[in-house]
């Protein structure tokens, strides 16, 4: 009998049988669950293209063995736009032209969502660049990416204050 | 990747009982899964320890020591208020390492166990006495970024950890459990110099499991003047070429006690006790820090075309002491551990 895991994937409960313990979260998403939005770049934790949220925290899905994730809550780029409305980070990436070829973009966006949730950078461009350094963009769209994260942070912060009030 | 058995024990006792030769402990997986993909590591059995209870806490003990569970993630440790307040250079070193994603996964125990970044160790087709004893050392022909202290003919690899450098400086202790029971290993004695047996990387016995790291109460006495400085090829998301953790306990304008350790220069974090002795009792100034840096590197020797690294380590050490003397910043710098900071104390000595 294959081992199996249960997880919540983009808000939906899933039971997944795994016949091979070597399957990473990245390969599980792309090759077994038809979610190719998460990209495979280096497959070694060096480029960030595979970034997803596990229990709300950004991680490299290429270095995460799927079998370790029983009970986890996973969010991928496909799960970010609630009810067809783009997430503020997605809006900001379009607004600021924060990509060229687009291959690294799902990872950049998921990493930015994670960074903003961490509250580490605020809208300080130096802290944003440092916080986003785990995501490589070979088209060098870094300037636009930094602006997009700044914009998204500003647009999301007042919402948080309203929630708290 | 070679196929392996995967188990997920629920208790420490079950985990220890499950260990056998050819097994590895899996924490965050950021290093081990990478090395399994390249083939540099080929375990028969992977024991996922992330479900073990009681290893994810950070607590202050009655005597003032800070105990950190081995499964605490690097990012959670760096952000913990007790660490920021009482051991700021530990937080700075953690935030200078890897990326946000990797820090969210990587654990305390895994950081202690991380393997060298030597390209020949990572390449299973290369000769490497550390990975495959007796095969030789292809790095000896290239050797540019390699060790300058404590290396041997058998191996010139360095330990890449940032976190372990301030831990060594602060006399941190590794708490271990194994088939023979519990014991403690000082961080400074945890990693082994290569000698003729570079494949023996740590003092851990087969089947022993790291359960925590403890910062002794005295470590918190350095919080006001403690910095980690890391010099690398690019400002973020790169391993150190050289690094230094410097901490001073100042009393009445003099250095009552100094702590100093260097990173990326040897197979272990390199505690510079001679330099510490030279600093004790003195009034801090640049000339003193230069002499301390000389003392720290007195035993250094190039292991290839890397004489430059001795000079770089010397300057990194002196600068880390100047930064520590200027005081721990009230807020974590935007670029942790970077020589390219924008704070006043960095500019004062630029």
UniProtKB/TrEMBL annotation, chain A:
Tree of life domain: Bacteria
Alphabetic keyword roster: 2Fe-2S, Iron, Iron-sulfur, Metal-binding, Oxidoreductase
SUPFAM superfamilies linked: 2Fe-2S ferredoxin-like, CO dehydrogenase ISP C-domain like
Matching InterPro entries: 2Fe-2S-bd, 2Fe-2S-bd_dom_sf, 2Fe-2S_ferredoxin-like_sf, 2Fe-2S_ferredoxin-type, 2Fe2S_fd_BS, Aldehyde_Oxdr_Iron-Sulfur, Beta-grasp_dom_sf
Domain 2Fe-2S ferredoxin-type stretches: 3-80
PANTHER family linked to this entry: OXIDOREDUCTASE WITH IRON-SULFUR SUBUNIT, OXIDOREDUCTASE, IRON-SULPHUR BINDING SUBUNIT-RELATED-RELATED
Protein name as annotated: Xanthine dehydrogenase YagT iron-sulfur-binding subunit
Species of the source: Tranquillimonas rosea
Automatic annotation (TrEMBL), chain B:
PANTHER family xrefs: XANTHINE DEHYDROGENASE FAD-BINDING SUBUNIT XDHB-RELATED, XANTHINE DEHYDROGENASE SUBUNIT C-RELATED
Annotated keywords: FAD, Flavoprotein
GO molecular function: FAD binding; oxidoreductase activity
Name used for this protein in its record: Xanthine dehydrogenase YagS FAD-binding subunit
Any single Pfam family the record assigns to this protein: FAD_binding_5
SMART domains: CO_deh_flav_C
Domain FAD-binding PCMH-type per the UniProt entry, residue ranges: 1-220
Organism of derivation: Tranquillimonas rosea
Keyword Protease applies: no
InterPro entries named in the record: CO_DH_flav_C (IPR005107), CO_DH_flav_C_dom_sf (IPR036683), Diverse_Substr_Oxidored (IPR051312), FAD-bd_PCMH (IPR016166), FAD-bd_PCMH-like_sf (IPR036318), FAD-bd_PCMH_sub1 (IPR016167), FAD-bd_PCMH_sub2 (IPR016169), Mopterin_DH_FAD-bd (IPR002346)
